[in-house]
């Protein structure tokens, strides 16, 4: 089935049990690994056209350009069962060694990340709540693979392309923001890395204008910072105080 939209499940909840009926006819006798290896092989052919190398053991595709690393990877569901359910989800991440170096200058080394943007692929566009692909049925598998590749072409690669023009990217971060950021800290730090302190301040200002409900919490956090605030901030208020402290923002 192409492009499933599935509800987000609380990570603490157990997935519904998969029932096996006596005499059930399997969709296929192929192992989950063989099915997914075949799918990933087709994706590798497509992404190779765009300069991506395939690391088969990790189901990871990687390309480097202009100081950035672009990664596409796949995660197999723990609930997969051969012949019944073969589901896979996609991650798409932009990494920056330059951004990591900036973070390392602000916080303990072990907390400094190189991921600049992205994550689960549905986060790259506003219209998706969640996306996965089901490959168990050989009769529909190729259509599903085609849909997966189409998603890469129309959503993932255009998202990556936004990072090729740093000035345009910073301008968008300042004006409207960009999908693929869960926390304001990541947007502000990327703006600082690509555009300097003024750009970082503008992105933080945009975030705070949109979230007046956080102003009281930010003031309280600034008055008495949590133990983790200035090293590895968690909530929004901690992140704002962290950014103001380490990047000399107001």
Question: How does this model look, in words?
Answer:
By secondary structure, the protein is an alpha+beta fold. It is 42% helix and 14% strand. The chain has eight helices and six strands. The protein has helices at residues 32-48, 97-104, 138-161, 166-175, 184-195, 197-210, 215-223, 236-246, and strands at 53-55, 60-65, 68-76, 87-96, 115-120, 133-134. Strands 1, 2, 3, 4, 5 and 6 form a six-stranded antiparallel β-sheet that branches. Strand 2 and strand 3 form a beta hairpin. Helix 5 (184-195) runs antiparallel to helix 6. The longest helix is centred in the middle third of the chain and has 24 residues, at 138-161. The radius of gyration is 21 Å and the shape is elongated. Mean pLDDT is 90; it is low at 5-15.
Regarding quaternary structure, how should these chains be classified? Answer: single chain
The overall pLDDT average reads 90
> How much helical structure, as a percent, in the residues?
40-55%
Radius of gyration: 21 Å
Low-confidence segments = 5-15
CA distance, first residue to last residue: 49 Å
Structural class: alpha+beta
Helical stretch tally: 8
| Largest sheet report | 6 strands, antiparallel
Strand fraction band?
A: 5-15%
What would the keywords be for this entry?
single chain; 250 residues; alpha+beta; six-stranded antiparallel sheet; 8 helices; 6 strands
List the helices and strands and how they pair.
Blueprint: H1 32-48, E1 53-55, E2 60-65, E3 68-76, E4 87-96, H2 97-104, E5 115-120, E6 133-134, H3 138-161, H4 166-175, H5 184-195, H6 197-210, H7 215-223, H8 236-246
Antiparallel strand pairs: 1-2, 2-3, 3-4, 4-5, 4-6
């Amino acid at each position: 089935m192409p492009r499933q939209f599935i509800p987000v499940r609380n990570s603490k909840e157990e997935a519904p049990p998969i029932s096996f009926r006596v005499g059930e006819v399997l969709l296929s006798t192929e192992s989950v690994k063989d099915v997914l290896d075949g799918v990933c092989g087709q994706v590798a052919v497509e992404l190779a056209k765009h300069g991506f190398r395939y690391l088969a053991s990790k189901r990871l595709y990687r390309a480097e350009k202009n100081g950035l690393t672009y990664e596409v990877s796949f995660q197999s569901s723990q609930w997969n069962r051969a012949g019944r359910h073969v589901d896979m989800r996609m991650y798409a991440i932009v990494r920056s060694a330059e951004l990591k170096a900036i973070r390392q200058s602000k916080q303990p080394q072990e907390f400094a990340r190189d991921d600049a943007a992205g994550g689960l692929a549905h986060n790259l566009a506003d219209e998706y709540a969640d996306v996965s692909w089901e490959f168990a049925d050989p009769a529909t598998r190729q259509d599903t693979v085609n849909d997966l590749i189409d998603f890469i072409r129309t959503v993932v690669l255009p998202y990556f392309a936004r990072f090729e023009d740093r000035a345009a990217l910073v301008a968008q971060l300042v004006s409207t923001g960009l999908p693929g950021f869960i926390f304001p800290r990541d947007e502000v730090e990327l703006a600082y890395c690509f555009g300097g302190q003024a750009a970082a301040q503008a992105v933080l200002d945009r975030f705070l204008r949109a979230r007046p409900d956080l102003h009281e919490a930010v003031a309280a956090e600034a008055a008495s910072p949590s133990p983790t605030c200035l090293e590895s901030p968690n909530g929004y208020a901690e992140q704002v105080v962290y950014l103001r402290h380490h990047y000399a923002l107001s």
